[in-house]
Design goal:
Distance between the termini: 107 Å
Order of helices and strands: HEHEHEHEEEHHEHEHEEHH
Helix content: 40-55%
Shape: elongated
Oligomer: single chain
CATH class of the largest domain: Alpha Beta
CATH topology of the largest domain: D-Maltodextrin-Binding Protein, domain 2
Number of domains: 2
CATH architecture of the largest domain: 3-Layer(aba) Sandwich
CATH superfamily of the largest domain: Periplasmic binding protein-like II
Largest sheet: 5 strands, mixed
Number of helices: 10
Number of strands: 10
Length: 277
């Protein structure tokens, strides 16, 4: 009899333990389920994307600025579309989704402003640049100035396609100013952007090329032999503005403000750009 009572007592305690364990598991499960909606509600919203259409010559500086800006603004993601100014201008005018437009020439921005594709009040002059003549680093040709391009030694000259690459138009203006364009225009090899011109020079596909100073400064395969004379072309200014149909106008405006800040200028200057005077 005593044994029966003892077994019954032990069985009861075992059942109690099992029930206690089951209740604990159930409470843990319910607590987990209860927290899921709260956790979902507390999840951070996706970052705001700013689509920036910018002249390719700004690439290296803008990539550095992107790192700094996103680190300081974790709720923002910068998405770049980098190409020749004329190509970007056409894309925006055809309805491409853009928030900020940065050109390599004031004229392109003037055209966009006149057609109301950008917000005039948001427009800012960001940085300036210089037009330079470059040759392959190991070149032995006697090229010391723009006028040397008329020499018989030079067979091919890389320039940007003037209808879409502002550096190309600057180059033609400079050579017209110096009175050599008619002599050298048949030597011109037109490229889709300034980086491609530099590549042509680096590989020896052309004996010389005309690009922005900042494009030349980021290559160890070319050297600058001359700077275009003052007054030979319009001042090279890179303006930026908010696109009229921007989906993130406030974020776009804040990013433009940052691009003209002392912090951003330090980055631009590291790559050879100058403050707009």
């Amino acid at each position: 009899m005593k044994n029966s009572v003892f077994r019954f007592s032990m069985m009861g305690k075992t059942i109690e333990r099992i029930m206690g364990l089951g209740i604990a598991i159930l409470l843990l499960f319910m607590t987990g389920c209860g927290n899921s909606p709260n956790q979902a509600r507390q999840a951070p919203p996706p970052p705001i994307e700013i689509n920036v259409f910018a002249a390719l010559g700004l690439k290296d500086a803008l990539l550095d600025i992107q790192k700094e800006y996103e680190a300081a603004h974790p709720n923002v993601k910068i998405v770049y579309n980098l190409a020749a100014t004329g190509i970007l201008q056409k894309q925006i005018s055809q309805g491409a989704a853009a928030d900020v437009f940065i050109t390599a020439a004031a004229k392109n921005m003037d055209d966009m402003q006149e057609q109301k594709f950008i917000s005039a009040k948001s427009r800012r002059d960001i940085v300036s640049n210089e037009l330079v003549l470059i040759v392959p680093k190991e070149s032995t040709l006697a090229i010391r100035s723009f006028t040397d391009l008329a020499n018989g030694e030079v067979k091919r000259i890389g320039i940007g396609a003037p209808e879409s690459v502002p550096a190309g138009q600057y180059a033609i203006d400079a050579m017209n100013y110096l009175g050599i364009w008619d002599q050298v225009k048949d030597k011109a090899v037109q490229a889709k952007d300034v980086v491609t011109i530099r590549s042509y020079v680096e590989t020896g596909n052309v004996e010389a090329g005309i690009v922005f100073y900042t494009v030349a400064a980021t290559s160890n395969k070319v050297r600058v032999v001359a700077v275009a004379p003052k007054g030979s072309h319009e001042a090279i200014i890179f303006p930026g503005a908010m696109v009229t149909n921007s989906k993130q106008p406030q974020a776009a405006e804040e990013f433009l403000n940052y691009l003209v800040s002392p912090e951003a200028l330090k980055v631009f200057q590291k790559y050879g750009f100058s403050k707009v005077k």
